[in-house]
Amino acid sequence: MDPIIQKFREKFFDEAGRLLDQLEKDLLELEKDLSNKELKESAFRAMHTIKGVSGMYGFDFICEFTHSIENLYQALRENKLNVERNFFDISFSAIDHIRKLLVDEKLNDPTNQKNHHDLINQVNQIVQTAPPKPEPTIQKEEATTNENTEKASTWHILLRTDEKMYFRGISLLNIFRELATIGEFQISRLDFMSQTESDTWSIILTSKASQDEITDIFLFIEDNCSITQLSLEDVNGIFAHQNTEAQEESTDHEISIIEYIENQNNQTNQPKKEISSEVKEQKAVKQKEAIERKRISVDSQKLDQLMYLVSELITVNSQLEQSTKEVTFNSIRGFLEKVDNLSKQFRNNALEIRLVPLSDTILRFQRLIRDLSKQMHKKINLETSGIDTELDKSTIDNLNDPLMHIIRNCIDHGIETPEQRMAKGKPETGTIAISAYHSGNYIYIKIADDGSGIDAEKVRKKAIDKGIWKADYQPTRKEIFDLIFLPGFSTAQSLTEISGRGVGMDVVRKKIQNLRGDVEVESEQGKGTAFILKLQQSVTIIDTLLFTVNESNFIIPISDIQICSQYSLNEINLRRHTATLPYNNRLIPFIDMRQWFELPGEYDEKIKVIIVASQVGTLALLADRIVGEHQAVLKPLGKSFKKQQFLTSASQLGNGEIAFMLDTTKLLQTITSSILQSN
Asked: Tens digit of pLDDT for each residue in 210-238?
């Protein structure tokens, strides 16, 4: 296959995937609000676009299938369907089938073959049994107007063709075949408008179709054509009767048509028609499409290379700043500041390119909840907050499976049936809530349900039966909940197709850990369960505060810092028995960095104290020296640092030394846990 054509076919895969995602989103919203005309139009346009492009690029089975589904949506937008749940079930099945056809484009898979024909038959039955569109009651004076709309109108289409159409895989033959289905047309080449690299054609179309229907045919080359309505009558018929000679000589006929167009365009004294609500909706759709056309697809490897170059630039900039601190470089200090400012802007822009909002992936979970709740005869709503939180594209891609497992677990083991919920005094409809937020260098995603929760005592007994713990061992709640991530560990009463075989949750933790993250469980029996995912971006460049203890360098995000202060050594020593310091009329724990990380040396008489706030609380860090702000390019730690649970990543300084990023949240959680155990 021609590599250029192959390139455009690959772009079709991306575009089709995007359109199917949008269609799925529209249908989920339409299922809640059947009166939304804009969603109906959007669904039809998505299917129409897939049909048209698939035909151009030779995806015959996709074209055949989407043509059938397009008829269904055409009946929907014309209000010819009594929409029931069956309509949406078939629509979602159709979306799934199209995704399979994008892989199995020749329809070789027997299962796909059966689904293909079954779905087409189901759609055809719905369309054929749809009641005819009711005829509106009209007043006598409106009859003339409606008669005109039923008559064939004449349209002039000015079309410019060039080589780019071929390279895009545009089939003009398919376009003209579709044009022939809505009316009769004549084509003439306009020599006086021809250019060296393109040809201009005049098409006179006689059709009962609306302008939107004609425009849809030229949807993929709309920038190359203009469509003008000449008359509410058959102009070709008028010329055939009034000017037989012009009909025999095509050139004279061409000039007559052009003169007619000019006359139509010069009639400026006609009153303007009021813009209908339908036209306004169509304009809104076109504006939306214009915005979509501004989006471009970029290979993720190119983005990875861009991030590598940005990180190298930041590192070199830091080295340059470090090596030019002497007075002799004062003359170039202003230029260095400009370079530093530009590198920060470049960093922010490059990072934003890679970031994708979590909302982009929530769609598939809406669909999952809809399908599984129906399958298990449960009523479940999805609530979201903070899903505009952005994550790295590679993180999002690797996060889909773990989130899928967790949500399936919430639906199967968490949410009760409507009868069970009402017996417990709960509303019959359960809730799954997905929320996300930033904290320092981490992103937290919480998936919570208001179901039955986890029976901690039941899990403990199961662990004893399996020989994991001795009978007299009293584990913490965290230890109990961590057991559900062990392979083969399940407390399910019975096996289901959804879960219950002890497979899935161990995969969740493993995949999250592969993303250099962690997952924790919070649960209260009878009230629900929450899974909290803690993730670190795969590529991170952030502003940090650099400080030192002995000869070791540490960094923490600037956004986490509350205040930097100073205490005397005596004040700290007097409070070592509680390991707390007063802050904002309360006591907060402090971390002696020398003790925690077994660093040599002694503190000076004046100790630097950094107050840090995290999602779980506030703590203080003791340091020898606060160096200042550092623009850090964070990179993963090697295997030798695997046991260092309080260090998350590292950054190279301008002088070649390494600074370690502290996990202050983990530090505070460990302190809190030790205090609770001691009490």
From this structure: 887 888 788 767 778 888 887 776 665 55
Number of H helices and number of E strands within the chain? 24, 21
Q: Are 4 and 167 in contact (CB under 8 A)?
A: yes
The answer to whether the beta carbons of residues 506 and 485 sit under 8 Å apart is yes
DSSP helix/strand/coil, 660 = strand
Which residue spans of the chain are classified as CATH 1.10.287? 300-356
Range(s) within the chain of domains with CATH label 3.30.565.10: 358-536
Give the angle 522-524-529 at the CA atoms, nearest 5°.
50
Q: Find tokens 């048509």 and name the residue.
A: 257
Tell me the per-residue pLDDT of 271-330, one tens digit each, with 9 for 90 and over: 444 444 444 444 544 444 444 444 556 666 777 777 778 777 877 877 787 777 776 777
Topology at the third CATH level for domain 147-262: Alpha-Beta Plaits (3.30.70)
Superfamily per CATH, domain 540-678: SH3 Domains (2.30.30.40)
* Residue 105 burial by Cβ neighbours in a 10 Å radius (0-12, 13-18, 19+): middle
Topology classification of domain 300-356: Helix Hairpins (1.10.287)
Q: Which of 81-95, 353-367, 497-511, 540-554 has the highest mean pLDDT?
A: 540-554
- By the 8 A CB rule, do 471 and 550 touch? no
> CATH number for the 358-536 domain, one of 3.30.420.10, 3.30.300.30, 3.30.565.10, 3.40.47.10?
3.30.565.10
Q: What does 122-185 look like in DSSP terms, one character per residue? A: HHHHHHHTSPPPPPPP--GGGHHHHHHHHSPEEEEEEEEEEHHHHHTT--HHHHHHHHHTTEEE
Of 534, 567, 558, 522, nearest to 632 by C-alpha is 558
What confidence tier does 74 reach under pLDDT thresholds 50, 70, 90? confident
pLDDT exceeding 90 applies to what percent of the chain? 21
Fold classification of 3-128 is: Four Helix Bundle (Hemerythrin (Met), subunit A) (1.20.120)
Domain with CATH 1.20.120.160 in the chain: 3-128
- 268's tokens: 């400026």
CA-CA distance, 463 to 486, in Å (whole number)? 11
- The rounded distance, in Å, linking the Cα atoms of 529 and 505 is 14
Report pLDDT for 245.
47
- pLDDT tens digit sequence for 420-458: 999 999 999 999 999 998 765 678 899 999 999 999 999
pTM above 0.85, yes or no: no
Q: Which helix (H) or strand (E) holds 316?
A: helix 300-323
Domain with CATH 3.30.70.1110 in the chain: 147-262
pLDDT tens digit string along 390-416?
887 778 888 888 898 899 989 988 999
* Lateral strand order in the sheet of 183-189: 183-189, 198-207, 153-162, 225-231
The 10 Å Cβ neighbour count of residue 667 is 20
Strand partners, 442: 439, 536
